[in-house]
Every structure is written in C-alpha cells, then in structure tokens.
Automatic annotation (TrEMBL):
Residues 4-100 form the 4'-phosphopantetheinyl transferase domain. InterPro entries: 4-PPantetheinyl_Trfase_dom (IPR008278), 4-PPantetheinyl_Trfase_dom_sf (IPR037143), ACPS (IPR002582), Ppantetheine-prot_Trfase_dom (IPR004568). Its cofactor is Mg(2+). Its EC number is 2.7.8.7. HAMAP family: AcpS. Transfers the 4'-phosphopantetheine moiety from coenzyme A to a Ser of acyl-carrier-protein. Its main location: cytoplasm. Keywords: Cytoplasm, Fatty acid biosynthesis, Fatty acid metabolism, Lipid biosynthesis, Lipid metabolism, Magnesium, Metal-binding, Transferase. The gene is acpS. It comes from the Bacteria. This is Holo-[acyl-carrier-protein] synthase. It catalyses: apo-[ACP] + CoA = holo-[ACP] + adenosine 3',5'-bisphosphate + H(+). The keyword Lipid metabolism applies. It comes from Enterococcus larvae. Belongs to the P-Pant transferase superfamily. AcpS family.
Amino acid sequence: MIKGIGIDIVELSRIEKIIQNRSSFVKRVLTENELEIFNQLSLRRQIEFLGGRFCCKEAFSKAWGTGISGVGFQEIEILRDENGAPVVTKSPHPGKVFVSISHTDTLAIAQITLEE
C-alpha cells in the first residue's frame, strides 16, 4: 500500500550559485557517503547531483507528510545501485522507498513513493 508520494523540482542555476557561494549548504544537504560521490564529479555533474539529491530529500519530506521541518537532510541518503540508478539507502520510513530523478539543462526533478 502506498503511504505517500512526493515530488520536487529545482532550477540548476540556483544550485550552481549555492555551490559557488555557500559550501556549508552542500555539507548540510549531503550525507558523508553522498559527499564522497559529489567530490569526485565535475562541476556540471556536481550541480546535477546536488540538485537531484536536494529534490529527493524535499520530495521525501512531502511524501512523509511533514515538509522538510519534520525530517532532516541527513536522515535521508540516496546512493546508486550496481547499475547506477538512484536508491534510497537511509530514511526514517520503515517500508520501501522508491525514487526517480531526472535532469534537463536547467532543472532537476525527483519523485519519491513511500510504500508500507
């Protein structure tokens, strides 16, 4: 049974400015494992990666029903499976969590589905 669905979208130009001007935000949003991946990427891929993860965590909070004030960025982790697809490896939800991330040249979008 589906417990919640959340979606979020962000302009990548906003994420680029954040990376350039507020490096503390990157560490606030990304877990240590996510940060490890982030640091190995080119600037363009860092923008997409952070944008996608930020959207995932915002979408999770919407699916969870609390908004971001009810769940912290560090409580949710999105890594990659053996094929490179995003997978939620840590969250406060006890059931299954499904994630989808997409990018254009200007936007990142993510959807989260929580299943009991």
